[in-house]
Write a structure and sequence with these properties.
Elements lengths: L4 E5 L4 H12 L7 E6 L6 H4 L4 E5 L5 H8 L4 E4 L8 H22 L3 E5 L15 H15 L4 E7 L2 E2 L6 H8 L5 E3 L5 E2 L2 E2 H13 L7 E4 L5 E2 H12 L5 E3 L2 H13 L8 H6 L23 H10 L4 H11 L1
Parallel strand pairs: 1-2, 1-4, 2-3, 4-5, 5-6, 6-11, 7-10, 8-13
Antiparallel strand pairs: 9-12
Helix pairs in contact: 1-7, 3-4, 4-5, 6-8, 6-12
EC number: 1.6.99.3
Organism: Sphaerotilus montanus
Protein name: NADH dehydrogenase
């Protein structure tokens, strides 16, 4: 397969870095140019060292800049998403950007688009979802499906884990700081999927035109509650702590308090609302097996990652927390 130009929005992020590596390493692939826009070019400096990868400083939310990025692309992957923010910020990222991207593709004559959404998105009325995150994700899917002339594939992953994730490693780091983990949403269900499996799924969708028009559910082989995942993070990192599930009212208080702290919060009220919907594969759409992939179990990936010790950033944050 040859794509002269592949545009990856969100290519400097967690999933984007894995996708670029997989794309460049795919046997028999004539990778062409991989274009990665970023508001801060320095974030993609490692990727920019790869042959045929170009990182450009650009704001994808600016329609004129987006038009320039899309020009000449054979395919576009949209990975841009946020987990925290106001209703307006979710709307801008998950709805307005897809609208503008669809319009830019139409103007440039670009048909192929692979869009990453999320498990838990309602199939019907977006208003039926309990959170701004899920409602905006659902509307983003809708505007892309309504756009004419797009060869669209939608991927819906569960929570994504890996060596650089901000989920399992975060809970491991927290358990190095506290004697007890008081946890809101402890009974929420997830089906965690390895970032490398999501990246390979994206590659397969780009390679296989039979995936056009499909929604692919990206989930791992096992379902866990949030409480179980937190316990495993402590166990694998050597910081086993009791996990104290909070009642609903206390969970809302905890989430509200965390949402007021500076920086990106561990949990917000909107996150808590999202967790009311099981973040697991429904079986109503093809899964990773339909792409020829056997997803890795979290127990096969994360124990050696956490046993090897935290990254320098993890250690810095842990020391700062203790101080």
């Amino acid at each position: 397969m040859h794509l002269r130009k592949l545009l990856i929005l969100g290519g400097t992020g967690f999933v984007g870095r894995a996708l670029v590596s997989r794309w460049m390493a795919t046997p028999g692939m004539d990778a062409g140019t991989v274009l990665i826009p970023s508001r801060r070019r320095v974030r993609g400096r490692a990727q920019a060292m790869l042959p045929t990868v170009e990182v450009v400083e650009s704001d994808v939310h600016d329609p004129q800049q987006l038009d320039a990025l899309v020009q000449g692309a054979d395919a576009v992957v949209n990975l841009v998403a946020i987990l925290h923010g106001s209703a307006a910020q979710f709307e801008r990222t998950h709805v307005t950007l897809p609208q503008q991207l669809a319009a830019a593709c139409q103007r440039a004559g670009v048909r192929r688009l692979v869009h990453v959404s999320a498990l838990g998105v309602p199939e019907g009325d977006p208003a039926s979802a309990p959170s701004n995150y899920l409602r905006s994700k659902a509307r983003g899917e809708q505007v892309l499906r309504a756009a004419s002339g797009l060869d669209l594939t939608v991927l819906r992953p569960s929570v994504i884990f890996g060596a650089e994730d901000q989920f399992i490693r975060l809970f491991a780091r927290l358990q190095a700081l506290v004697p007890v983990m008081a946890l809101a949403g402890a009974r929420a269900q997830f089906q965690p999927v390895w970032v490398e499996d999501v990246a390979q799924a994206l590659v397969e969708c780009l390679r296989d035109r039979s995936t056009i028009g499909q929604t692919i559910e990206c989930a791992g082989p096992e379902v866990f509650t949030l409480g179980e995942l937190v316990r495993l993070a402590g166990q694998w990192s050597g910081h086993v702590r009791p996990v104290l599930p909070l009642p609903a009212w206390a969970g809302r208080v905890q989430a509200a308090a965390l949402g007021l702290l500076p920086g990106e919060p561990l949990m917000s009220c909107d996150n808590l609302e999202s967790m009311r919907v099981p973040n697991v594969a429904t079986g109503r759409h093809p899964g990773l097996a339909a792409l020829g992939l056997a997803p890795a179990a979290i127990s096969a990936v994360m124990p050696p990652v956490l046993r090897a010790g935290f990254t320098a950033e993890d250690r810095r944050r842990t020391r700062a927390g203790r101080d």
